[in-house]
Amino acid sequence: MGNCSSEELSLSELELYTPQLSQYKLLYVIGKGGFGRVWKVKCQKRFFALKEMIKSKIIEKQSIQSVMNERILLQKLNHPFLVNMRGAFQTLTHLYIVLDYMEGGDLRYHLCKQGKFSEEQTKFFVICILMALQYLHKNLVLHRDIKPENLVFDDEGYLHITDMGIARIWKPNNKNETSGTPGYMAPEVMMKSDHGVACDYFALGCLVYECLTGKRPYQGKNRRQIRELIMSKQVKLNRQGLSKEVTDFVNRLLERKANQRLGNEGPDEVMSHPWLKNVDWGRHYDKLIEAPYKIIGKDNFDTKFVNQVLTISEYKDEKDHNNLFQGFTYIENNDEQQVTDIDTNKQKLLLSTKYY
């Protein structure tokens, strides 16, 4: 990304260029996370989302590896239905990731405003999510935190997956990687079992259920209650005016046993379900289909964030004297290859995993 106009820089100049916070005009906060905040910023004539993370909080929560993993994944990934990284840099006290700005806000904001969505609108959301998941899963990446807060709209009403904070490259023995959000976490992850791509499709099932009904399939006050509910009852979506195809789609995604769940064989299995049989994937990929849910106005964010016009300097944190985040800085190179050299046998193994 350089100075937000890297196309004007030669390769040698780009390699010497170091992004700085002073490049960006901080407008206001549009969200908060475990380590800091997300800002809407402006660089020259373009808007970006600037993810700000406090080093001392990352160290305190023993999350250095996780944060570095996110930065590395974002560097390797690029897809029209992901929120892509445009740069990353650091100061003595903070880390910053420059991301695509999505002015439509997240799905949670709109779900709270609308209550629920129509089947047509929900299908459109699913199409967007599946195209991104197909890309991730065929590149051996598990997102592991699909939920309304991590799905954001562009100004045309298309959804994009964001937040790779707990995403991981799949490996056979991953039962100890149990991060996720209760209410969307697959049973095999919650039970600390090895898991594959099917965990993301369980979360998708929870999401579709919530979009259509206005409530999550499993609700509890904490992780323990939700776990007990999942283990004691198989939730089923009732038709309630819905098509039999979407009912079957959701119920097969919500299957508690991963080896019986729709999506255990990979993304193509989900995309070929009867509910999606008439989808023109190419036209959706090229954004030639008019979105059935309209984004009205700009900056569709919770006002509790937007009304906070704050400054970075309000933080007084300990400096990173030990350079624990060496290599965090990243300058976008449009010619850089995306995820490559994926062994065919490993990919086949991932997409045919029968866990749980």
TrEMBL record:
PROSITE patterns reported in the protein's UniProt record: AGC_KINASE_CTER, PROTEIN_KINASE_ATP, PROTEIN_KINASE_DOM, PROTEIN_KINASE_ST
GO biological process: intracellular signal transduction
Tagged with keyword Oxidoreductase: no
Domain Protein kinase: 24-276
Gene3D superfamilies: Phosphorylase Kinase, domain 1, Transferase(Phosphotransferase) domain 1
Binding annotation for ATP: K51
InterPro entries for the chain: AGC-kinase_C (IPR000961), Kinase-like_dom_sf (IPR011009), Prot_kinase_dom (IPR000719), Protein_kinase_ATP_BS (IPR017441), Ser/Thr_kinase_AS (IPR008271)
Pfam families xrefs: Pkinase
Residues annotated as domain AGC-kinase C-terminal: 277-340
UniProt keyword annotations, A-Z: ATP-binding, Kinase, Nucleotide-binding, Phosphoprotein, Serine/threonine-protein kinase, Transferase
Recorded superkingdom: Eukaryota
GO molecular function: ATP binding; protein serine/threonine kinase activity
Homology family: Belongs to the protein kinase superfamily.
Protein name, UniProt field: Protein kinase domain-containing protein
Lineage of origin: Eukaryota, Sar, Alveolata, Ciliophora, Intramacronucleata
